[in-house]
Each structure stands twice: as structure tokens, then as C-alpha cells.
Amino acid sequence: MSRSAKPVAEDEAALRAEGLRPVEIWVRDTRDPAYQARLDRQLAILRHSPEEAKLLKELDEFLDWDDGD
After folding, report:
1. Contact 9, 1 (CB under 8 A)
2. Is residue 69 part of a domain?
3. What does the pLDDT profile of the chain (69 residues) look like in tens digits?
4. pLDDT (tens digit, 9 = 90+) per residue, 29-41?
5. Per residue in 31-47, is it b (16+ CB within 10 Å) or e — as a string?
6. DSSP of 7-46, one letter per residue?
7. Is 57 within a domain?
8. What residues make up the domain containing 52?
9. Cβ(52)–Cβ(46) under 8 Å?
10. Are 35 and 25 in contact, with CB atoms under 8 Å apart?
11. Domain count, the chain
């Protein structure tokens, strides 16, 4: 085992001893121009949505709410 691999293996062993296990998660590549175009289309729809405006207003009111503490 190389010098740099040993500390990694030790860290992984410690995490496993704590009952954890590694997992691999695949997510969309947000650098993909097709992904960005889709996101831009969806955001444009939301910007002009009365429902979105209402939700944002309600969220603002909730965040401004003071419970007296």
C-alpha cells in the first residue's frame, strides 16, 4: 500500500468501525448545456407564475414571523 493510500484506508476503516459504509451517488452534470437549458426554461416558467409569487410571499412572511423569543 502506498504512503498516501494508508491514511485513506485508516480513515475508511475508522468510519466502517462506526457503522458507516461508502455509497456512490450519481447526479446530473450541471455543466451540461442541455441541463442548463432545461433549468432556464423551468425558471422562466416559475418567474411568471402567480402560484410561485404567492408561495414566495408566504415564505417571506413566515421567515419574518417573530415567535416572541
Report:
1. yes
2. no
3. 666 778 899 999 999 999 999 999 999 999 999 999 999 999 999 888 899 889 989 999 888 877 655
4. 999 999 999 999 9
5. eeeeeeeeeeeeeeeee
6. HHHHHHHHHHHTT----------TT-HHHHHHHHHHHHHH
7. yes
8. 5-64
9. yes
10. no
11. 1
